[in-house]
Structure formats: structure tokens, C-alpha cells
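Incident log, structure service

09:12 report received: a user says their structure output differs between two submissions of the same chain.
09:20 pulled the input from the user's history:
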Amino acid sequence: MLSIIFCCLGWMFFFGEFILGTGSEAGNKAFTLVLTFTILTYVTAVGWYAILLFWAHYIWIQIEENQIVTISSTIKKEKIVKVIKDENKGKVYINFTESKTSLKKLSFRIGSTMTQFIIENLSASGIKVEVGNQEEFYQNKVVELKSVPAEKLRTAASKKDDSKAKPKSESAKTESEPKTKTEPETKTSEDTEK
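09:34 re-ran on a clean worker, output below:
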């Protein structure tokens, strides 16, 4: 809204000789005001988009039965790993997995009304809010999530090596047998004449 107001004021001074009058001094003032309001327009627009990008969960949040929705993201209930109330930092953290190996978090200040709303609604939907240390939990969980794919790769590689080491008696039999195709006989017009 502020960027629209600044933009309108800038245009008024750009086209409005009737406001400042005519002459070189009035032209300099008009140019300065137009430039100032144009810069203010862009600064407020960039500020608004930055708020939407980085702090959207402070503006608006919706808690449903199976998900939490903010302007920037949707968190399914089954992807929420843990909700921690860190009293040392004065914040409540919602930790959730975005993929199999990445852990994300949303943080809210404990004293805000938004946080009280979130705690009450999460408790009502069956998600426990635990008191603890966020840093320790986050570091341990990230290490755990990153080690799971490595273990899966090791077990998959060992299974592959085991399958290569086994004798290929069945596959050898199928390769040694000649492959023949049976095509249906087609009659031509010459065959029918005979």
C-alpha cells in the first residue's frame, strides 16, 4: 500500500507543474521529489516481498487436521518430526522434513500471541510440544537423516555384489538356448491360385 502511495506522489510531482510552479528551481525540486518517491516505491515493494519470502509464517498461519499452511509453505502433519519449546532462546520451533535427507524449521517467539495460538492448536491436533534444546536436536537429527541414505547405499551395494557373486546357472541356460521366432505363415495370391 505504501509503495502505491509513494508511486502516486512521484507521478504527481512529475506531471504536476501546478503544485510547485514553473521555472528551473521548481523543476529541480520536482525532479528531487520524483526521484525520492520512486526510490521509496521500490524500497517498500522490495521490503514487502522480503517479508513474504523470509517471514511469511509470522504474518499468517493456518492449522488444519492434517497440515499446517503458511504463505510460503505447506507442512503435512506426518512430516513434522518434533515441536520444541526452547526456553533458553525464547522460541518455539516446528521441525519438519522436506525430503528424506533435509530437515527444516519454523521458529516463533514464545511471548507472541501467534505462538500461543500455534501451541494450543498443535496440542489439540495431537502434536506434542516438548521443552528442550533446539540446537542439540537439530544437529543430531541432521546427522541421522544424512546417515540413513549412506546406509541404504551400502546395503544396496552389498546386495548387488552378492548377486554378482552367485552362479548364474539359470541365466546361463537361457542364454545358451537359441532364440527362435515363429512367424505365422502368410498366404500370397500365388499360393491360393495353385
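09:41 both user submissions now match this output. Likely a transient worker issue. Closing.
09:42 reviewer note: Strands lie at 61-63, 67-70, 74-76, 80-86, 91-97, 103-109, 129-131. DSSP finds eight helices and seven strands in the chain.
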